Amino acid sequence: MSGVLLRACGLGLTGAASTSAISKLQNAFVTAGSSYRNMAVYVEVKENRVQQALSELNRLRNDAGLPDELRKRRYYINGSDARFLRDKNAYKHAVGAVVVERIKWVMRRKGTK
After folding, report:
1. Where in the sequence is the domain holding 12, given as residue range(s)?
2. pTM for the full model?
3. Would you list the DSSP string of 18-85?
4. Together in a domain, 71 and 94
């Protein structure tokens, strides 16, 4: 099965891979955003390591933000709540950037002494 390409994304498949799981993977497509519709993600199965390919696919799915997008689309969010969530996420990212800069500063300082 070396060199087989699985086309999939958006499926939270975990556990042992069976032929039905592989057929589900082969028929799945990415439907994350309007610009990404019908764009397939390919994961190569090397040396019959299907479990490793599934974990790589799951990682790609999470990096693309599909679980968050699906969670957001499950319910309607009115304007004020959407604005609140957007501001909250912006604040979290800003705080994270400050923490990263402080850690870099400490590491540089420790390296100079």
Report:
1. 1-75
2. 0.43
3. -HHHHHHHHT--B-SSGGGTTB--EEEE-TT-HHHHHHHHHHHHHHHTHHHHHHHHHS---HHHHHHH
4. no
